[in-house]
Amino acid sequence: AAGERERRIESALDALGDDVVILGHNYQRREIVEHADFIGDSYQLSREAANSDAEYVIFGGVTFMAESADIITDDDQQVILPSMEASCPMAGMAEALQVDAAWEKLTAATEDDVIPICYMNSYADLKAFCAEHGGLVCTSSNAADAFEWAFERGEKVLFLPDKHLGTNTAHDLGLEDDTLVWDPWADDTDPEAIRESEVILWEGYCQVHERFRAEHVEEVREDHPDANVIVHPECRREVVEAADRVGSTADITQAVENADPGETWAIGTEIHLANHLDRWHPEVDVVPLCGDACMDCNAMRQIDPNYLLWVLEELVEGREQNVIDVDPATADRAETALDRMLEL
Ligand code: 13P
Ligand code: SF4
């Protein structure tokens, strides 16, 4: 059945020709990335979406990525997400409604100018909120640049939703002692702590990367004493400190691409990328940090190849399914925040 499905996907792609481009995030399963025209991290895929002139951009990824693609592509291009169930739990941890209320509390507690920065892993209305308040978007590959951009314009940064990426970025910039993980709904936050902090972090996290612990790094080093350990910056600080390197999924891919034959690389990110790297680089020993179940993202896994086949065959029949359509007013403001990132 899988062979038949592959044949049908290829024949639908042949029929659609240049009308369609398929973008595949590094965490997508093999049966999706094998059909992708571009495979990459969130930042690279947003650039590919911006550069593409295909009528249909089929996004192998999660909702927030498809929304961003819709915002930065032209109005006559359609972005299609093969499954509407593919929603990143982290993005849902900072909804614009909550952030609006928290912003009032925050700005009432300090006279400093606060610049909001939202991680790409957020919904369009939060990106719009950031633009409105003078801020921008960043991904895991340009968070430090985004913080520097913000500190040229204000005294404090509010970073959301990922407290771990925020903590790791603050460390990179030597701001770890001026960082507060803030729960806006806790009554016991000392207002002085807000006034004294330069980096204020929302209490969000990635369910996959938070599962990694420093013990996993120790275990992998016991089993593979020569291993180079590289982890994603969505990991806890203790994991980043125990690892040899930290980087976005594109950086992790590049590290394995540049490895010498026979080297061992232990990968602290989503399991599908570790599996792709193992398959693409048989000369390198690629080891997952804590096992298949621990490293699996259930949001990314929603993009089943049967759904890819379905959206493609529907397009061949002239029907557009699962179109991601951000409302124009939100899209317009969110685009400002994305453009500020693309210009970094
Ligand atoms: P990057 O591809 O930007 O490294 O992001 C990782 C991620 O968690 C995307 O959901
Ligand atoms: Fe969201 Fe984490 Fe999955 Fe990325 S890996 S889509 S951040 S839950």
UniProtKB/TrEMBL annotation:
Iminosuccinate binds at H25, S42, Y119, M120, N121, S140, H232, P233, E234, T249. Its EC number is 2.5.1.72. Pfam families: NadA. It is found in: Cytoplasm. InterPro entries: NadA, NadA_sf, Quinolinate_synth_A_type3. It comes from the Archaea. Signal peptide: none annotated. Keywords: 4Fe-4S, Cytoplasm, Iron, Iron-sulfur, Metal-binding, Pyridine nucleotide biosynthesis, Transferase. Belongs to the quinolinate synthase family. Type 3 subfamily. This is Quinolinate synthase. The lineage of its organism: Archaea, Methanobacteriati, Methanobacteriota, Stenosarchaea group, Halobacteria.
